[in-house]
Fold these 2 entries.
Entry 1:
Amino acid sequence: MAMARTRHGNGGLLNHPRTATGFDQLFHALRSRRPPRVAELPGEPRWRAEFVARRVEGPRITLQEFGYASHELMSGYGRVDDTALVGPVRILTPEGLDCLAEVCDRLEPAAGASRFITTRRVRSADVMSAFINNMIRDRAFLLACSRMAGVPLIPHPLRIPTAQINYFEGRGRPEIVKWHRDGMDYVLTIQLDGYEDYDGGRFTYFQGRTDDFRGVREGDPRLREAPCGERGATLFLHGSRIFHAVTPVTRGRRVTLVVSFFCPYFARQDSNTFWHLAADDGIPATIPNWLRLKWPVRDPAMDFSLRAGSPVITWEDIRA
Ligand SMILES: [Fe+2]
């Protein structure tokens, strides 16, 4: 797929809501509740390793091109963690994409409304769907994601935010993603619909440092639209260092799967914060989840417990 980075020609991008920070974020944490889960999806399609596309390649922009200095970035093992954005790529075959779209449609009754970042979404989708669970723990899938990121990845051990499905429809209250940066460092978004299926719903980002976003004015050329118009288009994003948003869907339906990853080699530098998570899922659901991540990270020998159920990708693998 060709990379055609375009400036966003429409005005009003900065009128798009921004997600809460500081005390407002605390307020969200006190009000938020984890959405209900469905126990299982009887008769869902079976994941197959051949659903991963053979060549997963796309244009790459570095974090230095977003204004970050190399010394501010995570580094180790002879590598600077400087991938900002990769894509669009195709990570699934057409058949794999059809199966994933079917699974996401069937999970929609479990979607909960949120006022924090994304208006309507399913959290922990891999806990409810064997297809999604097996997909994000498939070695070929993880290897493709790790090569895009340039660092070895596993599905994020936090579990609740690991696989999230976002639903947008062009009726009633506008369904959007507010301007935000992620708690997660490594985030993959798979588009399950194309521009022929909906109007609006543009994946927009600020090609600058997150601390420069506050001073941005309308029409700034660093406000860009990612070219995700084709069904199946997939973007890798260094989510914690990039402000991004999805504009309101005004017609049709748009569904995306968002998968968050973790680099075990940079475990102690993971960007997530308790309050960012709690604002999405509420404090009671976040505490056990948070402890499960933070206790093993304190002790490198406990690293394997973070990898539960995930193949190991090494630095050698991503260089090969
Ligand atoms: Fe995000």
Note: The pocket of fe (ii) ion is lined by residues 180, 182, 239, 244 (CB under 6 Å).
Entry 2:
Amino acid sequence: MIAPAAGLQVGRTSIGCTSIGRTSIARKLLMAASGAVLFLFVIGHLLGNLQIFRGPAAIDAYAHFLKSTPALLWGARLTLLCAVLLHGWAALTTTLQSWRARRERYASPRRYNVATLFSRSMRVTGPLIFAYVVYHLLHLTVGCVHPEFVEGQVYRNVVVGFSRPLAAMTYMAAMAALGMHLVHGVWSMFQTLGLSSGRWRPRLRLLAATATALIVAGNVSIPLAVLAGWLR
Ligand code: HEM
């Protein structure tokens, strides 16, 4: 193995005092911090969406509250946009760097980490989630790909939208990609923050898996409830 001058390449993380090592660590921290913001958004959004099970008045009032508080709405939108751009940039540059390193045989092509299906699919699930969010915004926020969108009537928009099996199934497939991305992403975030050593390791792995399972189940429950006729 040809090692970098004064740095050590372990899996996808560079540890050491070379500028490449420093840049990699800074990028990992940026990815973890922006990922944490997006993770918190997904949890908050799910809690808001679950209001749908309390009936049209509850979810419509919740959406109305957000829209009538522009500072909160636009503050959240700007924070999200920055987080998406930083997360995407860090992921793209890390991917390009690792491809270049493999081509130049800068690091050994052998894998030193036990790559799981989830970790290996991050570069596929990430862009899939991005494509889903674009479709989702056109469907339930802008409404231009929704058959009968009515501004402000969130309950109705969701129920009519998911009454089409293809749309409901697209959402559920996207939640599978989100789950695959989160289960590794949340664990990776803990590792980057240095929380994954010793006896915390199995607990944090369990926490990442449980949080992901709850998020996926909560999100999938909405299109499923519409298809089953429980929400109408
Ligand atoms: C089945 C699951 C989901 C449902 C039912 C749902 C529902 C909705 C609805 C109704 C809106 C429009 C709210 C309004 O205009 O007042 C919305 C907006 C949005 N959703 Fe979702 N959502 C789901 C999952 C997700 C996921 C997993 C993500 C991210 C990965 C996401 C990201 C967004 C974003 C970024 C917005 C725009 C927020 C804004 O107005 O700035 N959603 N969602």
Note: The helical segments are 19-49, 56-67, 70-103, 117-120, 122-142, 154-162, 165-192, 200-227.
